[in-house]
Design a protein that fits this description.
elongated, alpha+beta, Ubiquitin-like (UB roll), 20% helix, 6-stranded antiparallel β-barrel, 6-stranded antiparallel barrel
Length: 599
């Protein structure tokens, strides 16, 4: 038996050597090794210039690769008070060829075999040497407390544009390694319409795809890639960066903020690298988003952190687009966050509409839909949009309307808007259908109380022959003889402003609760109709979302002098006694005022 042991040992050695040869041949790395190395950390106080180290990232596929680096020095108080970084130079054929790559942020950095930090910064552009900044590991694993919920979106480092304004040389500033915002199912032309807003958030758009979920998506180790999901479904938007460390079910990644949003609830997904694109200007990873693996729970100055498990709920958005002969339906899911949702709804709606086989430029678009909120009445949406004569896509106004509605809902100061679902329907009608109010007249200039008068409106269609439409107004029976009335023939916007003052315009005042805001949104008149409003010279009291016409001056003085805390009071000099409308099937613009004597 003893004589057989050397033979057995030799067989095991041969097997191990064979595995090592296989690993070396195919570039495979035993993934559990990284998770073990991340357990022991190196404090910043022990980091010194000249130390040799290495880091891990993925350049293609799922293969975690190692590259060397050398510590140049430590920059104390760089990010802020007591927020230091480690300056390193990357070494090795790949990183010297690609430089610091977008998506590399979060790559775990090891010094003396201990986890020292996360790659997070890059130095300048067109630099001859790949120099990067490293967030110390204690700042990654113990991020600072959350910023206040109403805080602005502070940006990490200084962008090249900002550097020009404040006099910093753009080639010598340390900036965050770009975290690509990966668009799948989006055409560049669609994203370009919102480029300025994306840049305002400090985001860099990149194209990518989706990968089928796998059972091992949640098995993360340091050097893997994961990120935040903002939109998923028939098109997706996600960001991706490198995992620094995994401790039990907690994941630490990026080494810098995504948007510095503080505590959040965003879906976390596995990201898989297709390849790395080398560029003298900005190398980047081409990434596919894979299966959901948990929740991003915080977004801070020094790290993004997440928890493995079930993802948080998202807002379902169903969009249907109908042409003359066909209809196409799309489904998306969007994160519920006050700073992100309005822009994401606009961008997703615009892309779903314009990158659709049913859609075509030069058509009149009719938008209808509902926004369902928890515990509140739904927001009703209805508007019509004519083709634009400018180079802007015809579908852009629809996206901007949706962004405006969600902006008003999410920026209300009363309570968080919890959206259950969004359903939108767009109908495309060939041709440009829009109308301008050219003139209007009454059948006579005098009337008695209780009499009904016909009102005719001369409309000029877009590049069409003028046409006359007719409706009627009824004189109130209680109106005093000798009174002069005003008949306002106008589009929806002008009648909204005339009858609701600043409650409609948004210049102060307005609703005092989310229910009142929804009520105001639902009462806004539609833009595809001519409105005829009859105004009487009696004050209207606008109290929060309520319109109280013909209020006696004595009561106005009492209410206006003692408004309830938090309430909004406004007095208009006229009251809208009645109104009529004429639907036309296309946007209407213009205004005519007529005057009528009661005898």
């Amino acid at each position: 038996m003893r004589t057989a042991q050397p033979h057995l040992w030799n067989s095991r050695v041969d097997l191990c050597l064979g595995l090592l040869v296989l690993i070396a041949t195919f570039g495979l790395t035993p993934r559990p090794l990284f998770a073990q190395q991340a357990q022991e950390v190196l404090p910043l106080s022990q980091v010194q210039a000249g130390m040799q180290g290495y880091a891990y990232t993925i350049f293609a596929g799922d293969q975690i690769e190692k590259f060397d680096l050398e510590v140049i020095g430590v920059l104390d108080n760089f990010l802020g008070p007591k927020q230091s970084i480690i300056l390193v130079q990357l070494k090795g054929p790949k990183v010297e060829h690609t430089g610091v790559v977008a998506g590399m942020s979060g790559s775990p950095v090891y010094l003396e075999g201990k986890l020292a930090g996360a790659l997070s910064l890059k130095l300048g552009i067109f630099t001859k040497e790949p120099i990067a900044g490293v967030t110390p590991i204690q700042d990654v694993l113990s991020p600072p407390p959350s910023a206040p919920a109403q805080a602005a979106l502070p940006q990490f480092g200084a962008s090249a544009e900002a550097s020009v304004h404040i006099g910093l040389p753009t080639g010598s500033t340390l900036e965050p390694i770009d975290t690509p915002l990966v668009f799948s199912g989006f055409q560049p032309a669609a994203v370009q319409q919102f480029a300025n807003q994306l840049l305002g958030y400090g985001l860099v758009a990149a194209q990518g795809g989706t990968a089928a979920p796998r059972t091992d998506d949640g098995h993360l180790v340091a050097g893997d890639m994961a990120g935040m999901v903002l939109v998923q479904g028939d098109a997706s938007i996600n960001s991706a960066c490198t995992v620094t460390a995994v401790q039990a079910d907690h994941v630490y990644l990026c080494g810098h903020p995504f948007l510095n949003l503080g505590d959040v609830q965003l879906p976390m997904a596995r990201s898989r690298v297709v390849t790395t694109l080398s560029s003298d200007l900005a190398s980047t990873k081409i990434v596919n988003v894979a299966g959901s693996i948990g929740t991003i729970t915080s977004d801070h100055l020094t790290a993004v952190t997440g928890k493995l498990g079930a993802p948080p709920p998202m807002i379902p958005l169903d969009l249907s687009v109908r042409g003359l002969t066909s209809e196409k339906k799309l489904h998306f899911e969007i994160v519920n966050h006050p700073k992100l949702t309005p822009l994401l709804v606009a961008l997703t709606t615009f892309n779903g509409l314009t990158q659709n086989t049913v859609y075509g430029e030069g058509t009149t678009l009719r938008l209808t839909g509902e926004i369902h909120l928890q515990g509140h009445a739904p927001v009703q949406i209805e508007n019509t949009f004519a083709p634009l004569d400018s180079l802007a896509p015809d579908g852009l106004p629809i996206a901007l309307v949706m962004q405006n509605v969600f902006g008003r809902l999410f920026t209300n100061t009363f309570e968080p808007a919890k959206v259950d679902s969004i359903s939108l329907h767009v109908e495309s009608v060939p041709g440009h259908k829009s109308f301008t109010i050219d003139s209007a007249w009454l059948e006579k200039g005098e009337a008695v109380p209780g009499e009904t008068l016909r009102v005719r409106v001369l409309l000029r269609p877009y590049r069409g022959a003028p046409r006359v439409e007719e409706t009627s107004v009824r004189i109130p029976e209680q109106i005093a003889r000798g009174t002069t009335l005003r008949v306002l023939v106008s589009d929806a916007d002008l009648l909204n402003r005339a009858s609701r003052g600043f409650a409609f315009a948004g210049a102060g005042g307005g609703p005092a609760s989310l229910d009142q805001l929804i009520s105001l949104l639902n009462r806004e008149r539609r833009n595809d109709r001519v409105y005829v409003g009859l105004f009487v010279p009696a004050p209207t009291l606008l109290w929060d979302d309520k319109e109280l016409p013909n209020v006696p001056l004595s009561e106005i003085n009492v209410v206006d002098g003692r408004p309830a805390p938090g309430s909004s009071v406004q007095v208009l000099r006229e009251s809208l006694a009645s109104e009529a409308s004429i639907p036309l099937g296309g946007p209407v613009s213009g205004v005519i005022s007529l005057y009528l004597q009661v005898r």
